[in-house]
Amino acid sequence: MDPLMATTAAGLRSRVESLDLVANNIANASTPGFKADLESYSLYDAADVRDPGEALSRMPTIEGRWTDWRAGALVHTGRDLDLALEGPGFFVVESPQGLLYTRNGSFHLSADGRLLTADGYELVTVEPQRIRADPRLAIEIAADGTVSQQGRALGRLRLAAASVTGAAALEKRAGAYFAWNPQAGPAATPQETLVRQSYLESSNSDPAASAARLIHLLRQFESLQKASQLGGEMNRRASEELARVSG
Fold this sequence. Notes:
alpha+beta, six-stranded antiparallel beta sheet, three-stranded antiparallel beta sheet, 29% strand, elongated
């Protein structure tokens, strides 16, 4: 593959990755506790190029993606089972794939009194007690995560320590969930994080910025597609001319 075609192909692959990333940010702009993903770039150098600085042989491509750990704004909802964390840390929930971590505090009670996420994952509490609340009664949740009804403590929510400004111990999963990287060692309990009842943490994805980024990427993608088509047509014509001269 000639340098122009190789560079164009690398650019197209990178723009597809970027489009997927931005589309996911837009889709989760209203998901409580969602953390946006951003790209980091490096320069792709086409192979077999005599001048590595030649413009047509170089293309910015995605080297990796990183998570924006900044906390979203806390929004008062007035709903007893909406919870937000003020400070670093995550709620711990039990899924079929094992323990997951989230700052999406939109919970509900099941018919048998379990505190669940919208996906049906049960909130993990400080052992050995699991919460079994009466769905008919009001529920109170203290700043330390203690869940009570009519003055009786039912259990305390388990929180996992990981800095919101850089949680290398976490690996992103779908939506606002994360998995803990076992190589990071065991999770600890955050010491200064407060649980706020009747609040939700907003997504930190900026819809306006994401929409502008999406339009920019689509234009780049269209330009690269045209360049790829033009390069293919030029190669085809060169081959035909070479065959005609050789014949």
